[in-house]
Amino acid sequence: MCEAFNLSILEARNKSIITMLEEIRVKIMTRIVVKREFCNQWNNGYGPLVKAKFDKQKKNGVEWRVVWNGDKGCEVKKGRRQYIVKIKKRECSCRLWQISGIPCAHACCAIWHDGGNPDNYIDKWYSPQMYMKAYQHSLQPINGPHEWKKSQLISQLCHLYLGRLLGGLRKIEERVKMNREKSLGNLVSQDPL
After folding, report:
1. Which residues contact 101 (CB under 8 A, 6 or more apart)?
2. Do 93 and 13 meet the contact criterion of CB atoms below 8 Å apart?
3. N or C: which end of the chain has fewer CB within 10 A?
4. Hey, CA dihedral for 141, 144, 149, 154, is it positive or negative?
5. By C-alpha distance, which of 121, 4, 102 is closest to 49?
6. Which residues contact 159 (CB under 8 A, 6 or more apart)?
7. Global pTM?
8. In 3-state terms, what secondary structure has residue 38?
9. Backbone angles phi, psi at 155, to 5 degrees
């Protein structure tokens, strides 16, 4: 996630701090609007990327055979492969359903056998309501720098910074002077005269 964010602000990173932050703010404000519009276009109870994954699982689910135990649990078989599906717990022994929140092919097969619709078993985190919660807060527009109040704190910080900078330079000059004197003292003490 961090790498994706850094990539999106690549151009802004080389600018002055105020310009960089302004560009980041505008990008985030625009992204929130784009994501909301994207979510409003969803036709299902979940997004298009989830739909593509789920359609693939449903397509593969047709090939499996169910052995039902009569209590919301079953074995799902295809050739020599066999998995246990517990619909009430939303679990499959392949663990794909638990990891992704999207019913796997075995779960789809078991749900169909039970007379249900696999679409009703997709995790709530993929719903448009949850997606919109991630983008529910807007960044508020702000005036440009020409409207900003001038702060007295900046001049105080500049004086403090310059004082520290000059103080540091003085210490460096003193160290250089001491090192010169020591090296000259060593040369004088080594003189055979």
Report:
1. 122, 123, 125, 126
2. no
3. C
4. positive
5. 102
6. none
7. 0.65
8. helix
9. -65, -35
